[in-house]
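Recall the central idea of this unit: under ordinary conditions, the amino acid sequence of a chain determines the structure it adopts. In this exercise we apply that idea directly, starting from the sequence alone.
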Amino acid sequence: MIRFCLLLLLSCTLYSCAVSNNKYNPDKKFSKQQLQGDFTELRNILEQKHPSLYWYTAKDSMDYYFDSLYHAIPDSMTELQFGWNILAPLTQKIHCGHTSFGMSKNWGKYMRGKIIPSFPLFIKAWGDTMLITGNLNKKDSVLKPGMLITSINNIPNRQVIQKIFEYLPLDGYADNVNYIRISGNFPYYHRNVFGLYKNYRVGYIDSTGKQQSIVIPMWAPKEDTSKKKDIRQLAKPKKPSKKERQEFDRSLTIDSSINTAVLTLNTFSNGNGRHLRSFIKHCFKTISEQGIRNLVIDLRSNGGGDINLSVLLTKYLRNTPFKVADSAYSISKNFSPFTSRIKTGFWSNLALLFISKKRKDGLYHFGYWERHLYKPKSNYHFNGQTYVLINGPTFSASTLFCNAVKGQENIKLVGEEAGGGWHGNNGIMIPDITLPLTKLRVRLPFFRLVQFNHVAKNGSGVPPDIYIPPTAEAVTKGLDRKMMIVKEMIRQKMQ
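Accordingly, the structure predicted from this sequence is:
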């Protein structure tokens, strides 16, 4: 009987969830009172739990942003409007790359597989440059990949980029990560920041070098009404296999012509922790056994993950003992009284009882990361010339690695400024806040981590030792310019 009741309860729960999802309406308007209630709840949580709310923005300025955005909430807004018009500019003002807003889970489920109208051009952006990399309007005979854009709707390049940046999170002032973000999906960011227009006036440089402008329509998917959709068209795309995911996350290739190993690590994610640990060990064993003298480590897509895996990589390369942090602490002992708003809040509170301790400064220190001294690996330690490729998405745990090896004589960081803060960042434990009415989510890093032997707090990411920026030619031709230059440097040293 008990088993029957449990099954009945489970069935009812699943049914109610299905009904809830089916009835989800993305155009639902929330009242001003409801939105201000969610906003106030978020403000209370951030003010009481965020370890670095005033690290780069003074308290009086942060109070001003809280107050002005609260009063900017109109009579009603949709979930999307509240997220992008209120929460995105708020979280950006904190200057913490781990503090960002996300849409509700129901929004994600609703949008899965849907294609919506947008600005038609994909753009690669760096500095004040905007270069076309794709055009959704396939019949457009004017705007082609490789052409430079000078303005959109009479707004100059620089102003377009800087306006979008006002809605995107970053560590300190290390905005290189946001150039990569908007380059990955410019139509998405332009639509959410500037809105959707039936037509756009685009300024561009023609083949003779002259500035021109053209009016182009927005891109909208065309519905095929000639026949009913085949049920197979609605099927979910095939998920990559475990092996395929692992191959994307990490790889090792050997270029015997220049006696060089290329180690690509796109994550230090916990999900692949055990496999990644054994993979890293295998790589350095292989490099040692084959007598490889040059190593290229590609961290350009490594957004971080498990600090222990970052430490492991460091131990194979650094010549002297090191620590992870000079300080790692939170401003609160747990998430109470907001535990119900925090994903895994109960279990996180339980873990915090064991991993942090209050000290005389009134802060709750994660002593392990402050005290533990790591020694270099003796087996398979690599002492040859090492080049570490970095750019904006090099973040969080991968930034800890870059800081630990930067300055060692045989190691050079190559590429562009990392997105992760060089002085330090916030993280270690990063659950989501779920707002009670809109169900929008905001990431909440619980600890501030100041890097071992940290530099002054100037808001920069870890800078490269050898700066290699993008070029229009390399982007247009799809060339990996950074890798090409590093390999050429190795060839020249061999001569």
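Residues 121-217 form a domain with the Pdz3 Domain fold (CATH 2.30.42.10).
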